[in-house]
């Protein structure tokens, strides 16, 4: 896994994405009577795969990193879900070699589009792996969320570069190859020719506005905060400045 900065899409699980995936699991359960078959590409150490397996999904995790897959195996064992997770050492650029076309009810590409060479080709590959009627969930770093982060932490030169650099990078040492705005992400999904955009929202909107420990220490406070976070993330103007952008595409 790349450097685990808080900014990377893979570093956090916000309420908006969790809710979208929960309702997708429910949708498949209602339609088929069983939990979705999930393909988690760039799934790393199992931040998403382990809880999805815990929810009853059968999850194939494809990742280039042996270290991440070893951590995944340990976490799956600790969570008692080893029998529902299949780790595969593979590259998204050769996804068809390790995952059947039209095979998954739900395909995840979380924290991936900002680190691969060709995000359009990668998203096309993810879409091709989804069954018709299935979903592709993309979570990536938001360019304007990164801008807000740099301004609020006093890093104004980086903030400026995030706006002026064509790929939304802070410079040559940036660990990410690009950051997206919502329109770019939508266009990328539509350009696959296989996806209709069902949801395009922020994720973790409150993180930027309410940093540090909040009332989430109390269970009731956390629920209230998650509720507000999901609500705000669905408002385009607020979701656009969230640290992460989430797109759920429906396979034609
Ligand atoms: C930021 S981590 C995200 C991990 C996880 N999806 C999450 O959301 O927590 C990116 C992951 O993508 C993997 N990765 C990067 N390039 C890849 C590629 N070309 N094919 C498959 N996996 C790749 C990395 O090894 C890493 O585990």
- Kindly state the percentage of residues in helix: 40-55%
What is the molecular shape?
A: globular
Number of helices: 11
Instruction: Tell me the β content.
Output: 15-25%
Identify the strand order in the major beta sheet: 3-2-1-4-5-7-6
Mean pLDDT: 93
Largest sheet: 7 strands, mixed
Cofactors and ligands present? S-adenosylmethionine
CATH class: Alpha Beta
Per CATH, the architecture is: 3-Layer(aba) Sandwich
Report how far apart the termini are.
32 Å
Number of spatially distinct domains: 1
Structural class: alpha/beta
**What are the low-pLDDT stretches, counting only 5+ consecutive residues below 50?**
1-5
Instruction: Work out the number of β strands.
Output: 7
CATH 4th-level superfamily: Vaccinia Virus protein VP39
Give structural notes:
This protein is an alpha/beta fold and about 250 residues long. The protein has one domain (about 10-250): Rossmann fold, CATH 3.40.50.150. The protein is about 40% helix and about 20% strand. It contains 11 helices and 7 strands. The protein has helices at about 15-30, 50-55, 65-80, 95-100, 120-130, 145-150, 155-165, 180-190, 205-210, 220-235, 235-240; strands at about 35-40, 60-65, 85-90, 105-110, 130-140, 195-205, 245-250. Strands 3-2-1-4-5-7-6 form a 7-stranded mixed β-sheet, sandwiched between helices. β4, α5 and β5 (about 130-140) form a beta-alpha-beta unit. α6 (about 145-150) runs antiparallel to α7. The longest helix is centred in the N-terminal third of the chain and has 18 residues, at about 15-30. Residues about 1-5 have low confidence and may be disordered.
């Amino acid at each position: 896994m790349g450097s685990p900065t808080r900014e990377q899409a893979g570093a956090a699980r916000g309420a908006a994405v969790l809710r979208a995936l929960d309702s997708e699991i429910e949708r498949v359960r209602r339609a088929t009577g069983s939990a979705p078959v999930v393909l988690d590409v760039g799934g790393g150490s199992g931040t998403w795969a382990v809880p999805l397996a815990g929810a009853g999904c059968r999850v194939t995790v494809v990742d280039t990193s042996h270290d991440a897959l070893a951590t995944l195996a340990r976490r799956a064992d600790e969570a008692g879900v080893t029998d529902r997770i299949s780790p595969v050492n593979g590259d998204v650029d050769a996804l068809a070699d390790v995952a059947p076309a039209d095979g998954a009810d739900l395909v995840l590409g979380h924290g991936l589009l900002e680190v691969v060479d060709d995000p359009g080709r990668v998203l096309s590959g993810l879409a091709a792996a989804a069954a018709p009627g299935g979903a592709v969930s993309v979570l990536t770093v938001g360019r304007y969320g990164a801008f807000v982060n740099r301004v609020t932490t006093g890093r104004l030169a980086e903030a400026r570069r995030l706006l002026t650099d064509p790929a939304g990078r802070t410079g040559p040492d940036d660990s990410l190859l690009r950051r997206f705005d919502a329109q770019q992400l939508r266009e990328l999904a539509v350009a696959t020719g296989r996806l209709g955009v069902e949801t395009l929202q922020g994720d973790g909107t409150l993180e930027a506005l309410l940093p540090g420990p909040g009332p989430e220490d109390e269970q009731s406070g956390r629920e209230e905060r998650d509720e507000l976070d999901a609500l705000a993330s669905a408002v385009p103007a607020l979701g656009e400045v969230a640290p992460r952008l989430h797109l759920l595409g429906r396979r034609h």
